[in-house]
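Bench log. Compound arrived from synthesis this morning; before running ITC I wanted a structural hypothesis for how fe (ii) ion sits in the protein. Inputs:
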Amino acid sequence: MRAYYYDNLPGDQRLPHDYIPSRPVSVEALKAIDVSYWSVPVEGYQAKIDAIAKERGYKNRDTINCSKEGLKEAYEDKIRSFFEEHMHEDEEIRYILSGTGFFDVRETPSDAWIRIAIEPGDLLVLPSGIYHRFTLDESNKIQALRLFKEEPKWIPYNRSEETDANPYRAEYLKRVTVGA
Ligand SMILES: [Fe+2]
């Protein structure tokens, strides 16, 4: 995992969009906006992931394959829609099994985009209410484990005035601004 400020330059979303020189973001700075990260080597990952899942109450999981081959004609549309800025009313938990990609999360209160480059062995938890988006990178494929508690509530609420007023969004902002 490598996190850094997104350069906001126009161009293909799959490019790194890293400033020159890069403006890195630490794991602690991610923690301050309630984004959690663990590194769990893919070889023998099961036991460690099981332990974290048990501790945090993630009872269920499935695997998602995001690639041109997997999504076929829907690929371009999916890639565009994953990249719409949105939030969920539940955590988004991903463990990367193979491939690479980018999660972009909004920093509070700056509203800057932080880009998180993910690779196999990364376990990332985005809290409910955080604005974020996802894209593949130029390798065009990623395979990830999605972990969830009960029924997954992965409905994306695109950023809007209405979503700004969503109680999960308000709750998130309260959580990350206390003590800031
Ligand atoms: Fe999402």
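What the model suggests: The chain has a mean pLDDT of 94. Helices lie at 27-32, 45-56, 68-71, 75-82, 161-164, 167-177.
ITC booked for Thursday regardless.
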